[in-house]
Hints:
Low-confidence stretches: 1-12, 33-37
Order of helices and strands: HHHHEEHHHHHEHHHEEEE
Strand content: 15-25%
Number of domains: 2
Number of strands: 7
Largest sheet: 5 strands, antiparallel
Radius of gyration: 21 Å
Mean pLDDT: 87
Oligomer: single chain
Distance between the termini: 48 Å
Amino acid sequence: MKQSKNAIALLITLMFVIVITVAIGFGLKQVNSSAEIIKEEKFIYQSRVLVEDVLNILRSSKDIKKIADSNSSEELYLFLSQVAFIPLEYKDLKIVLKISSARAKFNPSMLESNNSLLMRHYLNKYGVNAQYIEVLADNFGGIKDDNSYNSRIFEENPSLFREYIATLAHLKVINEFYIKEYNENALLKIDFNSLFYFGADKNTSIDLNYASAEVWKLILGVSTERAEELLLGAGTYETKEDLDLSDEEAQNLELFKTDCFEPILLVEIELNESKNYSTISFEYDISTQKGSNFVFKI
C-alpha cells in the first residue's frame, strides 16, 4: 500500500515538473515576441517574468495545496526530493530551478546566552576561538551610540550592516576581519553555507527533517558520525520523539527553536544566456502562499 501511495505521489510530482516546464517556456516565448528591447534589458525582464511564472505555478500547484492541507512532513519531503533540481532550456536561455527547504539551517542572529555554549563547543572542534562569537554578535546587535562593540570590525568596515547577517558575502567580510584580527584561519574549515541561514527574520525554526550535518553538530553538540546518523532519518521525523535522542542531546535541542514541519520553500533560479548570467532566490510560504526575501544578482 505504501509503495502504491509513493508511486502515485511520484507521478503527481512529475506532473508538477512538466507543468512548470511548459509554463516557463510559454512565459519566455511571450517575452521574446515583445517590443524590441536591448539585450541586457530583455534579460532583466526575462528574470522578472520567470519569477512571476514560478510564483504563479507554486500558488496553483495541487501538490503544494495537498501539503498545506495535510500538514504532513512526509508529503513535503517527498515533494522536495522530486523537484530539488529542474534544468530547463529555451532557445539560447538556460535555466536551473532549485527548490529546497528554507529552514534547514541556523540563523546566527538567534545566538543567545543559553545556546552560545554549544556554539563555543562547535567552534572548538574546528580550532576557532570564542572571540568569533563576539564578532558575530556585533553584526546583529544594531547600531550602538556609545560604540560599545566587542571588536574593531566597524573601525575597519564603517559601512557594514549591523542589524543581522544578510548574506554569505556579508559573512565573508566578517570572517576575513576575524582571520586578520586574530591571525587565525581555522574558520576556513567550516562550511558556513551549510550551517547558517541568512535573513532578517530572527524567529525562524530549524526543520529537523532538513537540518544539515553541520547544524546537527551545532544544536546537539554531537560528532560528525552521530550527525550523519540523524541525517539518515530525514523525512521521517514527525515529532522530536522520533529522533531517539539521549538525555543530553534532548536537553541541547531545547536550547534552539526547532520543529518537524516548516512548510517554507527556498526557490533558487539560475539564468544563463550568452554573456548574461543572473541568480534569483526567494522564500515561498506554503501556508500563506506568499513569497519573501527576494534576492536578485545580475
